[in-house]
Amino acid sequence: MRSNAAEYDIIAPDSLEEVLAVLASDQRAPIAGGTELMVALGAGRLAQKNFVSLHKLSELRFLDDAEETTLRIGSGTTFTDIRSSDIIATDFPLLSQTASWTGSIANQNRGTLGGNIANASPAADTPPALLAYDAELELISIRGTRTIPYAAFHLGYKRTALAPDELILAVRLPRRFSTHKHWVRKVGTRNAQAIAKIALAAVAKIEDGVFTEIALGAASLRDRPSRLPATEAALLGRNPHDPAALRAARQALAGEVAPIDDIRSTARYRAAVAGNLLEEFLGSLNA
Q: What is the residue-averaged pLDDT of the chain?
């Protein structure tokens, strides 16, 4: 049954300062692009009734490359903004590619990077790339700003490290991957506008024929977007084309993921495809 819109209340302050004051004093949930919340509204399952809109906040919509070693992306930056950025396409191609997977063009015009992160779906498109790029998050409240590794942000299914009065201010990405290999793959029902059955992102550096760095970010393999540290450790220092390295990595991967059965797929399928994607990534690397 569709929700009755008259039962909901939303306010739209003009500044970040006003929004933070509201969050500190009122039981309102922030709404950015609203692409996920409107689906829940239409399905009659949006339990939260009171919202504060972030849509007007130019303070959250920016790309800041003033720091030579870091790119800061405001949480209000849309997926269209990300796809249009030459800096992101050059330095963080996986983020540019995963932004193109996120819904329709209309969704990309409205949906925001911060909203995609805070929504905390295990199947979200951009988190695997952000995890592989060692992203950090700047969180802000009236108490100040703090920075945490993105890998520590997701605590469980739909649970995050955000305090009730905090917002994601920005995503910080280290600009050190120009000599790395970048690879990402999403498996879904369709080529577009499909929620991931599984996705895997990889950023790696190979020197003298072996992995000297490797980071793997995954969607739909646990109850949250996740790094795969055991699989990374099984490959570090190994030749990507060594069959023994692949066997060890597959074994490590099987031991650290916990996929589920749901309407989109089965746990068995996801576990099998995860191993196949890992093998595909290794096979894509130059011998």
A: 91
* One domain, residues 197 and 95: no
CA dist., res. 114 & res. 111, Å (int): 9
- Give the model's pLDDT for residue 43: 67
Distance between CA atoms of 170 and 22, rounded to whole angstroms?
Answer: 20
In a shared domain, residues 156 and 92: yes
Domain that holds residue 18: 5-53
265: domain CATH number is 3.30.390.50
220 and 130 within one domain: no
Whether 135 and 219 map to the same domain: the answer is no
The tally of domains found in the chain comes to 3
Enumerate residue ranges in the chain where pLDDT < 50: 190
Same domain membership, residue 211 and residue 153: no
Quote the radius of gyration of the chain (alpha carbons, Å). 19
In the prediction, which pLDDT does 263 show? 73
Cα 103 to chain centroid, rounded:
14
Q: Do residues 273 and 279 touch, judged by C-beta distance below 8 A? A: no
